[in-house]
Amino acid sequence: MASNTVRRLSFCFELLFLILLPTFSSVLATSTVEGFSIQEASVYDLQLAFRRNQLTSRQLVEFYHNQIQIQNPVLRGVLELNPDALAEADKADQERKAKAPHSLSPLHGIPILVKDNIATKDKMNTTAGSFALLGSVVPRDAGVVTRLRKAGAIIIGKATLSEWSHYRSDAAPSGWSARGGHGKNPYTMGDPCGSSSGSAISVAANLVAVSLGTETDGSILCPSDSNSVVGIKPTVGLTSRAGVVPISPRQDTVGPICRTVADAALVLGTIVGIDTNDKATIKASKYIPKGGYAKFLRKDGLRGKRLGVLRHFYDFGSDTFLHKTFELHLKTLRERGAVLVDNLEIENINEIYSGTSEGIAMAFEFKYSLNAYLKDLVTSPVRSLADVIAFNNKHPKLEKVEKYRQGLMLQAEKISGSKTLKQALLNLTRLSQDGFEKVMKGNKLDAVVVPFAIFSPVLAIGGYPGITVPAGYEKGVPFGVCFGGLRGSEPKLIEIAYSFEQVTMIRKPPPLPKL
Which Pfam families does UniProt cross-reference here (predicted)? Predict the structure, then answer.
């Protein structure tokens, strides 16, 4: 077995190789330590390499640091690095030597990137991408971060995002924030989709293997779909939102973005659970399966599952590449034992997508929940939504964006009227019960299967879960398939998504960006 010195020299040589050849394909950029390839490695791969003494957590953090140094100036997926990450890696390496392997969590020693609206009580900032919160001090780690640290994970840094989780303005481009700049899809150098854009960019480009995102409406599913990675949008309340810069407590949820369904299920199992700082987790805890989600990683997970096909979302034109691709995917689902209930319709689908109730409810919820979050900070330059708006008006150059680009914030600050909110909430409940739930229960479905992330509003307004899995590339542009279900249906969705992933194995890494 090679000495630690030899291993380190070998690793450093590989990093030098990457630096000298940044424009080569990601295959040539693969880093190998003791015969183990870090590029595209899953959490399961990394843990096996740890056990075989082929890799250390320090080497892993150093590799990701190097990848970030090379690619992030172009991709802008990482906003800030944890200055203590290497020290935490050294601690993990020491613990691995001192403790029995079975006593350590599957995430022990694994670097994880968290979206910059998720609080970390350390030397990093939590700003939702805005200079208005730079220098603020959070009272504690977010609930999900507490669970990750307890599992021995290393918080390597903060991911970029659409500023204020894309609730600053509809006019601001997806993936843009004042602090982070404009994130780029590593496959296209174009739109990464928001708002967990940096989380998806970084996982797709191998800047990290695991990240956390948040979703209010599409913010995990859409960037995962656009960047050819796996994203799980959990049932609202399944994961704690305590310590997360909020938009809507009724719709906000925290979930994993990874390159494989297995990794995403593993991370989900780590971050779910009751948090006394988020009362919604108490009610949702009934959905958590005993023994975690790994047991639902079944290659035959599609067998016997009833999947609804909503043709409203498949209108590509019969001769198009997308039509042919998704018809092949539906055929694959049937061949793997799924029962496809085709040509289903959600009767109120047009009202869901064109109605105003979701926007009205979110405006109310954003104002009051953000004010509560800001008041709870230990120190902060801003203490209310009104303060944030005033900051943006006072520092237009710092924010690097025109004043009109905080339109959503201005609407939220001005909105009032309890009757208006009550009616909006009643409408959303009706739309969910008479729409998605009626179709699911009436047809005894386990899930629906929908192209892309376009189904996110239906899942969002009812607090339902969804999983997106890579489904193909059209002229190099990635797209995914989404499986959605009723509240608490994560075990079924994981079975379905894992089985589909294992039979298709579509994902491929992006080329390294040209510098």
Answer: Amidase
Write phi, then psi, for 367 (nearest 5 degrees). Answer: -60, -50
* Beta strand pairing call for 210-215 and 111-115: parallel
Indicate which residue of 57, 199, 219, 357 is catalytic.
219
- CATH architecture label of 4-296: Alpha-Beta Complex (3.90)
Catalytic (active site) residue 219: yes
Residue indicated by tokens 């055929």: 331
The per-residue pLDDT string of the chain (515 residues; one tens digit each, 9 = 90 and over) reads 333 333 333 333 333 333 333 333 333 344 677 778 999 999 999 999 999 999 999 999 999 999 999 999 999 999 999 999 999 999 999 999 999 888 999 999 999 999 999 999 999 999 999 999 999 999 999 999 999 999 999 999 999 999 999 999 888 889 999 999 999 999 999 999 989 999 999 999 999 999 999 999 999 999 999 999 999 999 999 999 999 999 999 999 999 999 999 999 999 999 999 999 999 999 999 999 999 999 999 999 999 999 999 999 999 998 999 999 999 999 999 999 999 999 999 999 999 999 999 999 999 999 999 999 999 999 999 999 999 999 999 988 776 665 547 899 999 999 999 999 999 999 999 999 999 999 999 999 999 999 999 999 999 999 999 999 999 999 999 999 999 999 999 999 999 999 999 999 999 999 876 66
Crossing angle of helices 261-271 and 143-150, rounded to 10°: 110
Amino acid 98 reads: A
Phi, psi of 182 (to 5 degrees): -110, 110
- What is the CATH code of the structural domain delimited by 306-349+429-504? 3.40.190
Q: Which of 57, 115, 169, 380 is catalytic?
A: 115
Catalytic, out of 57, 130, 169, 195: 195
pTM: 0.93
